[in-house]
Write a structure and sequence with these properties.
Strand content: under 5%
Largest sheet: none
Order of helices and strands: HHH
Shape: rod-shaped
Number of strands: 0
Length: about 100
Amino acid sequence: MEKNNELTQIETRQEEINFYSSNIQNYENILSTINGEWDEHLIHLKNIEVQEAARQCSIEDLERLAELQLHDQVENLLKTEIVERFKAQTILNSLLNSHILT
């Protein structure tokens, strides 16, 4: 593998890790502003498709339901970004190790 190509791969992977880290920080910030504890009277809507849950929800509780659904969605996105960042970091480490060895 050529050195320039290897450096480009390393730089690209580092940018990817930075992107994931930025998303993780944003998602953590969002989650810190949202109360994700499901209210007892809404818990039955937790595992129902978003639009169907909204249809079944009273108008008075609709914004609270939206907040809870957003919290769950962002929490899942956060988990995905953490996993993807780990994979990208593992690949970067491998590239760095092979770069050092050559």
